[in-house]
């Protein structure tokens, strides 16, 4: 499991998807975008956060969303993933969101999306996991004991919830007992916030 005890990602990549293709239609286009993102990740060392910026993307279709979002998440959620990578969507319109969420739900996946109002969880996370994610996102970071106390459960139960969030790539483990939200990791003091233009 990734340990982020130093308090930050070694690499934060901001991929302006529209610089690759302004319209994400057809599966080959989606594969090209995904390969570009994977290449960035593979060239990095240590845990990284990939911000997929849809700000200037006009049209996206189901096959592209499947290639770009679902396949990236499945690859880096897998136990045999090539390295630790986390993903955030930014700048997505409501049209993008509807299509991306359809793809996520089809594959039982979830992703964090950020905008000027903060972070949101898109996709198929079970209700209990979604509640824990919302709790973590509000706090920014939490210890297992604090979550257990706040939610009225035992530390092993709280730990299992947080480990599941990390396995879904929705929270960042910082040692054995502490976890940070992706929104907090992205906007933490000293980090350059993503541009939403």
Key attributes of the depicted protein:
3-stranded antiparallel β-sheet, 8 strands, 5-stranded mixed β-sheet, 8 helices, single chain, 46% helix, alpha/beta, disordered N terminus, 197 residues, disordered C terminus, globular
Report strand order across the widest sheet.
1-2-3-4-5
In one word, what is the shape?
A: globular
Low-confidence stretches: 1-7, 189-197
Give the CA-CA distance, first to last residue: 34 Å
Secondary structure tally, helices: 8
Helix content: 40-55%
Question: SS-based structural class?
Answer: alpha/beta
Order of helices and strands, N to C? Answer: EHHEHEHEEHEHHEEH
Radius of gyration, in angstroms, nearest whole number: 16 Å
User: Percent of residues in beta strands?
Assistant: 15-25%
Please give the largest β-sheet.
5 strands, mixed
Q: Could you tell me the number of beta strands? A: 8
Molecular structure report:
There is one protein chain. With 197 residues, this protein is an alpha/beta fold. Helices cover 46% and strands 20% of the residues. It contains eight helices and eight strands, in the order E-H-H-E-H-E-H-E-E-H-E-H-H-E-E-H. The chain has helices spanning 17-20, 27-43, 62-77, 94-107, 127-139, 144-151, 155-167, 182-187, and strands at 11-16, 48-53, 85-90, 110-115, 118-123, 141-143, 171-173, 178-181. It has a five-stranded mixed sheet, sandwiched between helices. Helix 2 (27-43) packs parallel to helix 3 (62-77), helix 5 crosses helix 7 (155-167) and helix 6 (144-151) packs across helix 7. The model is unreliable at 1-7 and 189-197 (pLDDT under 50).
